Amino acid sequence: MEQISTITEFLETSGARLRFFDMGRRVDKISRDRFLQFEKTAIPYPFPLQQQAWFALLFQDKSSQQEPLIWFLRLPLDEQGKLLQAARDDFMHRLIERIGEKMQADSEGQQLESALQDNPYSFKPKDERMAIFHARISRLLNAPPSRFYAHAQHYFSGQPGWEQWSFVGYQGIADLAARLDQDGNETIVASAITVMPAQPLIALCHCLENETLPRQITQALLDRVDHELQQATTDPGLLAAAIRGSARPSAQRPQRELISRILTSPGGNHIEILTAVSGRAWEQLLDAEIRHLFLERLAENSAGQEAFNLCMADLLYLPGMRQPILATVRDPNRSSRLSSAIGALFQGVTGQ
Fold first, then answer.
1. What single Pfam family name could you report for this chain, choosing any that match (predicted)?
2. pLDDT digit string (tens) for 309-323?
3. DSSP 16
4. How remote is the C-alpha of 299 from its chain's centroid?
């Protein structure tokens, strides 16, 4: 009999159905096979953040009679973005100590609920992240949205007045974003984006970043960006939110246009804008033109060399990003400013 060495295989011995979600860069589902490959160190973690894998593990009885149980875990990664096996083994040891080697069906739920007590690998997501996660889970499990959903939908229709945004529950906004294909929400949201105040728009975008956006909403975000860029003073928080909100477009061209227009604007070197690209819309940096523009603006970012170094380290750690980034860094046509920033980065790494 093959020895069980992964969290996935161990928990599946209970007969539970497992689902995995990234909780770091975005709230995004990870397939069982992909996660198991990660656990076996066959592949790096697909969405590393701060050199850790931040994920949620949802499991429920296959009969679906009981409420699903959710664990939030973070595990350290090595220099290649792969799981540190010593950390996984330590987690497994602590887990087995808590719930015993044999789980009985009548007490399994209680054992698992208390299994992470005082476990250093568990974490509690921020309230906003929890709202988004619950919205996605309720949709996945065909459960109704929260009691805040109807109020959020009413607000985004514009009927109570845009100044009433402070009365809208964040959970309702998350539910709305997770159900764009229901109840006419796509049209409601697209219409609201172009006219609503900045604060509720930013909250909406932070929820939309986890969803695959229909073209109508991506275009609405692009229109709002164009309007913002025409103002005498632009709001970097709003522009960064638009990048985050359009992070998963069904149509790539409008989002690339959105990022390009923001980066080429006078305020396109603001660090909040640049980290929105690298942290939430990094896939667009696979486009050579966007990548070159991004690195040039990063070299003159508003927070200085340290921010450049941190952002570069984060990008180089992402699976599939190292070679494209290095190719642009080595481009002989790069600006002198980018050359200087790269030189300072490598000088800091080598200590020379």
1. DUF3549
2. 999 999 999 999 999
3. E
4. 24
